Amino acid sequence: MFSKANQKKLDISQGDSLHVIMQEDTSNDQALVTEELEAVLLRYYEAYEVFENLLPGKQRNIIFMIYNLKDSQKRVDTALNAMENLKMGTHYPIKFEKLL
Length: 100
What we know:
The chain has helices at about 5-10, 35-45, 45-55, 55-65, 70-90. About 15% of the residues are buried. It is mostly helical. About 55% of the residues lie in helices and about 0% in strands.
């Protein structure tokens, strides 16, 4: 599957040939940790410990939840909110409450 947005970005259309190189993702989280999330994790050690003890899938959910936001301030606010929820014991991103 190749999204229309990526097709447009690369100026290709259906039926065009592509040369694809696939590589194993060797990053820790298989996701891009935003600067905002990294800063929040560095600042709140208690939340960082809880985050590191989550299953990798839950970590990725939180990372993607923050990564998909366009506005930097919203990423900071969401990261702070996620860390507060983690500190309170809510480990399921779908159950995070809006605390801030």
